[in-house]
Amino acid sequence: MDDFALRKGRIYGTILIDISTGRPIDVLPDRTADTLATWLQEHPGVEIVCRDRAGAYADGASRGAPEATQVADRWHVWRNLDQAVERTIATHRRHLQAISPASVPQSGPAPALLAPPPPAAQPPRTPETRQDRVAVRTRERHAAIHELLAQGQPLRQIALRLHLGRNTVRRFARATTPEELLVHAGTGQQAKSLEVFDDYLRQRWADGCTNAEQLYRELQTRGYPGASTVVRQYVRSWRTALPAAPPSQRPPTVRQAVGWFLRNPANLDPDEQRGLDTLCATSPQLAALRGHVRHFAEMMTHRRGRQLDAWMTAVLADDLPELHSFVKGLRRGRDAVAGLTLPYSSGPVEGHVNRIKTIKRQLYGRAKHDLLRLRVLLAD
Questions:
Q1: pTM of the model
Q2: 296 or 378, which is more confident
Q3: Closest to 216 measured CA to CA, from 181, 178, 186
Q4: Which of 17, 150, 163, 212 is such that its CA lies 20 to 30 A from the CA of 300?
């Protein structure tokens, strides 16, 4: 059994399948314990109940089929262990800093920090550059708008005729010359005035100063009247020759470390294995966690559920309060023992849940539960 959304976040139903044949048996209108218990009482003879770890399904199965063996799906049990491991590592996250590589001493400046010499000469501006295209378009619009204004056309009519916004037309109308509109786009007098400082900029760039804001402050002291954005655009093309900076060396995240503990050790690459070994060497609690997780994985893989009691006792003996909560949950629902012993799981029902999503889209949300139930049960 598993639930599915009739209306996501609000209304849910339950699908029941035969775990032996994989065929759907029934579709319930909700996911409450009472509905499930009633259905099981009306269909006696159920021997195995595969479910997730939801309390409603556990209660309904216990009341409706008390003699049946309940099997908690192994994926959900492993998911609960994943959450407990994440909380444990988050509690000891300070040890993740030990994996961050120490700063490597260097005999000289790092190559990535050396600024290459700028181009020998500023590349000539061509009509295809974006700034010049903007400048040409701005001058053409300014001339057209002022020509229509001279003819007595109102701003609204000009905007409709030129397919422009009224605020755009108003801004062009207030500008006496197109250069007033170009000055903030780096296409007018400011960009041209920056060329006066071209030699100085190239010299400072060759000296290693590649910070556009610093260059802008230096140009201000030399009388440059423009904005810092123009300086940034001016030197942008010079940065293409800069070597790529090395990736920042950050410690792993909690989720990355969780993956090291939960994945098969044979699937860890050397760096991940070294990170896991470092964590376990710096923290006795994480070392104990590693052993418990591997033991539990072996029980699940080889279905050695009879070892679960000894495993839970060993966990409770260690200082791992987050993992203790996981153990208490297992003890409240002894179904996990069957899930770690029997070959059954809730995996086959997941495919039917996905198929219900397709059927729901075909019905466009107009059909009631009875039609949805028939479509699910009678589908090939």
A1: 0.55
A2: 296
A3: 186
A4: 17
